[in-house]
Amino acid sequence: MTHGFSLTDDPWLLLPPATGGPAYERSLRTALLDAHEFGDLAVEIPTQRPAVFRQVLLPVILEALGRPADEREWMGWFSAGRWSREQRSRLEEYLDAHSALFDLFDPEQPFGQVAGLHTAKGETKHAGLIVATAANGNNVPLFVSRTEGDTFALTPAQAAHWLLHTHCWDTAAIKTGAVGDSKVKAGKTVGNPTGPLGQMGVTLLVGTTLFETLLLNLPVGAPPTSTDLPQWRRRDPSDRHPAGTPQWQERAPEGLLDLWTWQSRRIRLFPEMTDEGSRVTRVLVAAGDRMPQTPETEPHTMWRVERTGGRSTGRGKGGAPAPRRPLRLQPGKAAWRGLDALLAPERQSREAGEKTSGFATSKLLDQAGALALDLDESYPLRVELSGIAYGNQSAVIDDVMFDALPLPLAALEEDSDVRAALLEVAEQAEQLATAVNHLSADLRRALGTDPIPWDRGQRPGELVLHALDPLVRRLLTGMRGVEDPERIEAGQLAWEQLAWRRSWEVADRLLQAVPVGAFVGRSVSRGEGKPEHTYRVSLAEASFLKRRAEILHRADTARQNAPRLHGQ
């Protein structure tokens, strides 16, 4: 016999005070009503954070309070710094009215699950099945201390987090067939896609308090329609899209509430009472609702769009523009290397005749850009990007990706000097990496060997980007609240001078490692009737130095106007 666990009133959300200090577990009620008193939500792995926000926190706010109709109303909510007395009362009324639907172990309507879910043979699996970092079947992460044979015992708080995470990020392929699912064949269902967040890179905006973070991730617009409901209000089999039965559907979301609380799996947790209290030791995960494609109403992702004003990226059926596709993150690639997508205005990407980069930022970042003039320019906005790289047939997890980036509000303004400066810095970093890769290729040719293939091994350009990473992040932080063009230009000069030295340190290591034979060089034929091309160390070094001076033109000009110093 186990006791219930109320997400509404039992502590399960790990939150530190906004002023700093240790984090303690709080209930959903406390977290929402006193959101202004708490800092950033603490989680076991970064991909749990968007799952908790989308599956619980944001939908409760949206259904209980609605959402601001426009930017002016949003700014009124935000500038108050906390919920008004009326908003707080409405939140309490909502939680009281629906508290029974937030019981994790309710025998009839367990939160985010299907009551009585079972297989024909009554099989269950150990709780590690829903833990993304656990060894299970083909999914065996490197360097983990647990094995598939270990017993998992999840506390109710842990089970709640991993339940939400599974709905958002679960692996694809074959799932256990549940009784009541008409599409089960031989005890299995096939063709299951990953969870909806697994098909995109997630961008979550973070403020200085939980209250600000909630509002930064709440898009303005019309209130939800009567058919757009969160999963906890679609439990009855007679509902249009019932979430409380084994039967699943392939359909588009009805709206934001449906999208955020999407039940991509049918799950049942099996708790048991132990000496330490209730623990979830067994689970059942079956097929759930399938989304044909990520809807354009999705607010938490950047997009690939058809490039205009240049080479086309392709057309859709009947010559129509190619559909938007969510932008995925790349393992090992720092977030600032994607500034061209982060800062690509949504408005511009939709304006006919305008030249666009082939990207559109997330709706929430675009909204923040529209509010930039009303918010304090020095506001410490942070963007968290998270994603999962899946392996063979998306049935295993290869990598969990996460990066957090300080972002000046002025950078979100389409024609701002700060935006132009940051985009130039990101491009310069990539160009320096390419220049070092070319240096490496020329040195290897001087030795008679082939350059390092672009898709194999680590090329030295990656070392340059690694060395430049803290410099770019420092510049992003330093640009907050900066409006004076002279200060922006001074910041770019300081960046270039540091990048000048860091890029040379990597290049110099390559030059120092070259054997004596490379100084003699080699001549390579470029085809019949064409003169041979000679590769030697001196030529490769000169070519790199010339290219570096072209890329970091401010630093080069400053060096020419300053007394000559020793070294590069």
Brief account:
By secondary structure, the chain is an alpha+beta fold.
Structure commentary:
- This protein has 568 residues and is of the alpha+beta class.
- The protein has helices at residues 28-33, 48-65, 71-80, 85-98, 156-169, 210-216, 256-260, 339-342, 346-350, 363-370, 417-446, 460-478, 485-512, 517-520, 537-551, 553-561, and strands at 13-15, 24-26, 125-126, 173-176, 188-192, 202-206, 265-274, 277-287, 303-304, 325-326, 359-360, 382-390, 397-406, 522-524, 533-535.
- The protein has a 3-stranded antiparallel β-sheet with strand order 3-8-7, covered by helices on one side. The chain has a 3-stranded antiparallel β-sheet with strand order 6-12-13.
- Strand 14 and strand 15 form a beta hairpin.
- Residues 349-353 have low confidence and may be disordered.
Strand runs, count:
15
Proportion of beta-strand residues? 5-15%
- Helices, by number, come to 16
**C-alpha Rg (nearest Å):** 27 Å
- Side by side, the strands of the main sheet go 3-8-7
Profile the largest sheet.
Answer: 3 strands, antiparallel
| Helicity level | 25-40%
Q: Unreliable runs, pLDDT <50, ≥5 residues? A: 349-353
Overall form: globular
Subunit arrangement of the protein: single chain
| Average pLDDT figure | 90
Based on helices, strands and strand pairing, what is the structural class? Answer: alpha+beta
**Straight-line N-to-C gap:** 74 Å
